[in-house]
Amino acid sequence: MSALLQVSGLTAHYGDFQALFGVDLALEPGEVLAIIGANGAGKTTLMRAITGIARVSGGTITLAGAPISGRPAPDILRAGIAMVPEGRRLFPSLTVEENLKIGAHARRGSGFWDLERIFALFPVLKERRAHPGTALSGGQQQMVAIGRALMSNPSVLLCDELSLGLAPVVIREIYAAFPMIRDSGTALLVVEQDIGQALKMADQVHCMMEGRIRLSGRPQDLSREAIHDAYFGVSHG
Amino acid sequence: MIWLDTLVQGLLLGGLYALFAAGLSLVFGIMRLVNLAHGDLIVLGAYLILGIGTATGLNPFLAALLALPVMFALGMALQAGLLNRVLGEDILPPLLVTFGLSVVIQNGLLTAFSADSRKLPLGPVEAASVPLGPVTIGTMPLLTFGSAILVILALNWLFYRTALGRAFRATSDDPVTAQLMGIRPQRIFAVATGIALVVATIAALYLGARANFDPSIGPARLLYAFEAVIIGGLGSLWGTLAGGLVIGVAQAFGAALNPEWQILAGHIAFVLVLLLRPRGLFPRALD
Q: Between A84 and A231, whose confidence is greater?
């Protein structure tokens, strides 16, 4: 029985440069998997490969048992994987409400997440629904980006560097929404540089370095030293 | 009083130029594609209306209604089969391909219809006019102008009030992130070009009803369309209408001073706007 999202032996290249070397991971429904690692570790490439934005050069990705690797990004979104991209990437010519609605562009039928539920999750967005998305503060833009991704009612939500450039209080506010997202049955794959935040919210943590997963485990089972060594590539040989 | 009449005639002529330009503006706004064959596609539309009218005996207005879905399908096929293949970071390949398409359309029309001038026969409405205060306005120019306003209103409604319009704007902003929303940019581009050719067909109806046309006049229509789009501000639909009106009024006043100055006056107005407001009268940020 395979997991909801199963990545096996995934490799990816940018031209001659190999960015991922046989990455494996498995995600169950409602689970939170955090991927930590320094800049250039391959975290974002992994996310882009799963969503079909970056080309996969080897390995397999399956969602609920169905292979999805190599399919175009719009098909993968329809299959049930949505992403909150690094830097939020809101559409400047769309209002907050339109940014949210465009997230449901490919949706057929109803689901748990709709405009009202997103406004319940992030009430400030309801007040600012008519403003251009990019006129909001960084934290509010991040809320729009999360809401937009949820509007497709994904079974897996990928979040790339949610905390980047945000104040700690804003980061806490954003991560406070995670329990409700989990409770809706959505599994979360979160790339995070804030190690403390990652350990606090995740069921599993993978630490990546140079395109490989160097360390995996449940947060409570990983020692601070082991994480430090995997993160910075320190070897005690 | 003659100046008021000239102004009104110029504004009405500007409506025709806005129709030429609206499809070009739409395509540029969504996919940053400069379609050098746009003028020739308008002329192709005029021949299609003429052909349908001749074959069925319908008047040009009804023939144009039948031509609309044909041109929409042609636009989608053209984008999906040809233009999508050359769209990318480099702007040169689409320019070259649409330039080649322009030559192909002109020569195809020349072979099929010869170089003889044609006109869409509308009957008595061509000479009809309505008195409006101190000036008398031709019914056809008035219909052209009204159609231009309706087309711009319809395109604005489509852009800002529909899910398709949202997808147009999102794809125009960021085609990669749009794919993460399940949008297929190439399909969006095909629909946009289909709509652009629907607008081109409406322009073709008035082009062919107003004056003679032959296979070689496309590039000059393209030039007016370009000038209207740039005067108005790239990507702004109301700006495109304003741009068409500026050229129309400039041409009308040029012609009033000296008939030989008509075309030149339109180009001078274009250069003046470029010098004074290089981003156009209504750049997209102010849309």
A: A84
Q: Which residues of A touch B172 (CB under 8 A)?
A: 93
Question: Which residues from A are below 8 Å from B when comparing CB atoms?
Answer: 51-53, 72-74, 77-78, 82-83, 85, 89, 91-94, 98, 101-103, 105-107, 148-149, 152
Q: What is the pTM of this model?
A: 0.91
Q: What is the pLDDT of residues B105-127, one digit of tens each?
A: 999 999 999 999 999 998 888 88
Size of interface A-B (CB pairs under 8 A): 66
Q: Which of A51, A93, A107 sits opposite B180 (nearest CB)?
A: A51
Hey, what CATH topology would domain B2-286 get?
Answer: ABC transporter involved in vitamin B12 uptake, BtuC (1.10.3470)
Tell me, what's the pLDDT at B19?
96
Give phi and psi for A212, each to the nearest 5. -130, 155
- Pick the range with the lowest mean pLDDT from B6-10, B132-136, B138-142: B132-136
ipTM, 2 decimals?
0.91
Is a pLDDT exceeding 80 seen at residue A233? no
**Cross-chain Cβ contact B180/A105 below 8 Å:** no
- Asked whether A151 and A104 are in contact (CB, 8 A), the reply is yes
B168 neighbourhood in chain A, CB within 8 Å: none
Q: Give the bridge partners for A6, in sequence order.
A: A26, A62
pLDDT number for residue B151? 97
CATH number at residue A24: 3.40.50.300
Q: Is residue A237 part of a domain?
A: no
Q: What is the pLDDT of residue B100?
A: 97
Which chain A positions have a beta carbon within 8 Å of B170's beta carbon? 91, 93-94, 102
- Whether residues B176 and A53 touch (CB distance < 8 A) is answered with yes
Give residue-wise pLDDT tens across range B9-48: 999 999 999 999 999 999 998 998 999 999 999 999 999 9
Angstroms from B222 CA to nearest CA on chain A = 28
CA angle A81, A85, A90 (to 5 degrees): 110
SS3 A234: coil
From chain B, pick out residues whose CB is under 8 angstroms from the CB of A103: 181
Contacts of B174 in chain A (CB under 8 A): 89, 91
Count of domains for chain A = 1
The pairing of beta strand A66-67 with beta strand A58-63: antiparallel
Residue A157: partners with Cβ closer than 8 Å, 6 or more residues away = A81, A82, A83, A84, A146, A149, A150, A181, A186, A187, A188, A189
Amino acid in position A52? G
Tell me which residue range forms the domain holding A12: 5-232
CB B255 within 8 Å of CB B9: no
Of A73, A94, A148, the CB nearest to B179: A73
- pLDDT one-digit tens code per residue, B143-156: 999 999 999 999 99
